[in-house]
Structures are given as C-alpha cells and as structure tokens.
Amino acid sequence: MTTAAAQAPDGRKGRGSGAMAVAQRVGRSLMLPIATLPAAALMVRLGYEDMLGREGLPAVVNRIAEFLAAGGGALLDNLPLLFAVGIAVGFARRADGSTGLAAVVGYLVFRQVMAVFDDPGLPPVEGEPQPADAGVLGGVVMGIVTALLYQRYHRKKLPDWLGFFGGRRLVPILASFAGLGLGIVFGYVWPVLGAAIHGLGEWLVGSGALGAGVFGVANRALIPVGMHHLLNSFPWFQAGSYEDDGVRYQGDIARFLHGDPTAGQFMTGFFPIMMFALPAACLAMYHCARPERRKAVGGMMFSIALTAFVTGVTEPIEFAFVFVAPALYAVHAVLTGASMALSWALGARDGFGFSAGAIDFLLNLGIASRPWLLVLLGLCFAGVYYVVFRFAILRFDLPTPGREPEDPEEPGKEAAEEDRARYRA
C-alpha cells in the first residue's frame, strides 16, 4: 500500500468527522434560543381564556392572564429572530455583542425583503394576500450566515478613510446586504415550496388514518427547518366544516373545541408521543450519558421531559439529537406517524388549543372520545422509544447529551469501546 493510499481513508474520515463537528455546533447553538420555549409555552398556556383568563375569575386574575399571554406571545411570535441571534452567537467562534447585533440587522432586512413577495399557499386575509415568511428556517439561515461573516471579517482592516467601519463594525453592514440577497432568493423560491406543502395538506384531510400518519411523519420531518407551521395551517385551521348554534367553524382545532365528533384527525396521535414517548427518549439519553456527566445531563433531561409532558413542547428534546443522529430522528418521525394513524384507526378523538401536553389533555377530557386509550398507547410507545434510543445510542456511539468528547484530540474512544462491550454483553 502506498503512502497516499494509506492516507486516503484518514482524509475521508477527517472530512466526515469535520461535517459531524459542524452539525454538532449547529445543534448546540440551537439550544440557546430553544431554551426560551418552555417559558413561552407556560406563559401562553396560563394566559389562555380557558385558564387564568376564564370568565368568572376575579378581574385581577384575568388581567394577569393578559400579561402572561402577551409575554409568552412575544417570544413565540419572534422565534425566528431568537434563532437568528442564538445561532449566530452560538455558532461563531469568539462571538461578542456585535455578532448578535449583526444577526438582528441581517434577519430584519431578510424578513422585510421577503415580505414584499406574496405567498399563494396561504389564504387571503380580508381579501389581501399574505406576505411570504420563511419562519424559523429564515432565522436559522441568517444566523449561520451571520456567524460565517463574523468569523471571516470581524478583524478585516479597511483603508484609513473607511477605518471607522472596519473590524466588528463591518459585520452588521455585510449582514444587512446578505439579508437583502437571501430575502430576494427566498422570496422567489418560498412560494413554490409553500404551495407544494399546502397541496400535501389538502390531500391529507381526505385520507383518514393514512392521512393522519403521513401528516405525523411530515410534521416531525419539517421541524428542523421550521416549515411544519406552514404544513399545519391547512389541516388545523381550514380543513373541514362544522356548525354549532348557527356558527360555522373550520379547521381541526376549532371544530374539535366546539364539539365536532369527527374532528381531531391531525391532533390525537401527538399525545402518546409528546406526553410519554419523547420523555422516555430523555430517560434513555440520561442512562447512556457518561457516568461523570450523568448528573448534569439528568437535570436537563428531567426539565425538558417534564416540559414535554405538561405542555407538549418537544423541540428541546428533538433538537438534542436531530443533528447528531439524523437517522434516529427519522425513526422518531416514522413512529410519530404510526401513533397518529393507530390512534385515529382505534377511534380515539382528542385535540388541543396549544399542544399535546397534559394540560390540554386534562382540560379536554369532557369533549374527547376514548382519551384513556391514548394513555395506554403512550405507555406502549414509551417502551418502544426507550429500547430504540438506548440501542441506537450505544450501538452506534451517538454523541447525544452527556456523550460528547471533551477533548477534541481524544474523542472518547475508550469510553465508546466500554459502551460497545457492555452492549454486546
């Protein structure tokens, strides 16, 4: 074997490990904005009209509900901006305040330029077309672009007569032009993607359990790029029609909350996954963490598992493994589809006003059909998730939380071998 031939595999391995390292950096940087989601979810849920905002409660309690709803809504409404800033700061090496400022500048330009375009995939509001909006995907893209611009140009020196704009001050300027260019590109491309996703939603409505299952897979598959909200818009807010006391309601959510016995097709199967299966995945990741890091990982996993169970907010769990184990995330998407199809086929009917967590589950017991069947299904899926996640993490040495190599020069080979030996035993 020649020297070149001997070195080729190492080069390929280096490129592969480099790509994985970049994916891990993106995943870690996403956790910063994602950390705001539990707070937003709790504030919004407590501020809903069926909670602290319910009629009959003291006026001061209703007023507090308004404050909570406004505070949580501020975070959820600006999630793309939070992603742009969080990813830029988390992804760029030696980031500082100018990195976050550049991300804000770039994303604001990107969003407003894209809003010049109409989105034909969304229904008009009062006769006016809705503007194109890339949502969280736009924030992720601008965050990464800003981080790359910062790393390349934050020490760039300009001629003396432009010296004031050199270095860190140059990055926000470049980010604004990057936002301009990307906004134009996305503006032309996004309506095509949006129309395709909207067409898929129309097909799903008429497909029964199969449609529910396909929707579940697509919903989870689109979460990493932030496009699931566009997919959700048709089945949740437009699909079907139901009249009650002369009032016509459209969309799976509104129809269910107003007593339509045929509603819930695109919500029911999320309860077993969000309340039971993904918390079980957290338990598997905790058990697979390095012994010396298990305590720290346990605290994080407990908090995000509890958030998923109570509120139905699962992004903190899913982003903990989507980039380091995309194949495992694909399995998760398929199992979510299986839960959606099975729940609907067995006659369970449930829904939510916010998400498929324990709060909505308990609040809607009176209008749900066979809700306790979802608990049984959830326990079954929890067992499946625990076994699948534990097997995959140990068998393929996946760097889930608590298993990341601490020293880049020595990426935990001995620990990995011990894990494999324990698995074989």
From TrEMBL:
Transmembrane in keyword set: yes
Topology of this chain in the membrane: Multi-pass membrane protein
Record field: transmembrane: 30-48, 68-92, 99-117, 132-150, 170-190, 269-289, 296-313, 319-344, 351-367, 373-393
GO biological process: N-acetylglucosamine transport; phosphoenolpyruvate-dependent sugar phosphotransferase system
Basic and acidic residues bias (residue ranges): 410-425
Keywords from the named record: Cell membrane, Membrane, Phosphotransferase system, Sugar transport, Transmembrane, Transmembrane helix, Transport
Domain PTS EIIC type-1 residues, every copy: 17-405
Cytoplasm recorded as keyword: no
Locations listed in the record: Cell membrane
A single MF term (Gene Ontology): protein-N(PI)-phosphohistidine-sugar phosphotransferase activity
Annotated region described as Disordered, given as residue ranges: 401-425
Pfam families linked to this entry: PTS_EIIC
One GO cellular component, as annotated: plasma membrane
Protein's recorded name: PTS sugar transporter subunit IIA
Protein species of origin: Streptomyces taklimakanensis
Lineage: Bacteria, Bacillati, Actinomycetota, Actinomycetes, Kitasatosporales
